[in-house]
Amino acid sequence: MSSWLASLNYARNVAAHHARLFNRKLQNSPGRPKPDVIPVLNHLREFELKGGYGAYNILAVVAYLLTCIEGGETWTSSLVALLNSFPRSDILDLSSLGVPDDWSDLELWN
Questions:
Q1: How far apart, in whole angstroms, are the C-alpha atoms of residue 64 and residue 61?
Q2: Could you give the number of structural domains in the chain?
Q3: What is the span of the domain harbouring residue 66?
Q4: Which residue, 49, 52, 5, is CA-closest to 30?
C-alpha cells in the first residue's frame, strides 16, 4: 500500500506542475498485489514481466481505488474514451504509456 501512495503522490505532483505523464517511466511504480487478492489488477503482475512500468500502472490503481470508494465509473469511462481517442501513429502509440495490448477488454475498464 505504501508504494501505491508513493505512486499516487508522484502522479499528482507531475500533474500539478503541468508536466507530461504520458510515456513517462514511473519513478515509484505501484506494487503489484499478490495473485487473486485484487482480481481486477492481476494483469499488472503479468504485465510486469514484460517491463510494464509506464503510467498505465498508476492509472489502473487509480481506477481501482475510485471504483472502491465512489463507484468510479465516470472517471474510468472518461479515461477509456480519452485513450480510445488517442491518435494512431507509427511514431507514438499507447504502448508508450505502458498500456497492454488487450487493455480495453480487461474487467477493470468495463
A1: 5
A2: 1
A3: 2-109
A4: 5
pLDDT, tens digit, for every residue of 13-54? Answer: 888 998 888 777 777 778 888 888 888 888 887 766 455 567
Contact 40, 32 (CB under 8 A): no
Q: Quick check: 4 and 60 in contact, CB under 8 A?
A: no
Q: Which three cell numbers stand for residue 82?
A: 480519452
Burial of 27 (0-12, 13-18, 19+ CB in 10 A): exposed
**3-state SS track over the chain:** CHHHHHHHHHHHHHHHCCCCCCCCCCCCCCCCCCCCCCHHHHHHHHHHCCCCCCCHHHHHHHHHHHHHHHCCHHHHHHHHHHHHCCCCCCCCCHHHHCCCCCHHHCHHHC
pTM of the model: 0.83
The Cα 33–Cα 25 span in angstroms is 20
* Cα–Cα distance for residue pair 40/57, rounded to 1 Å: 12
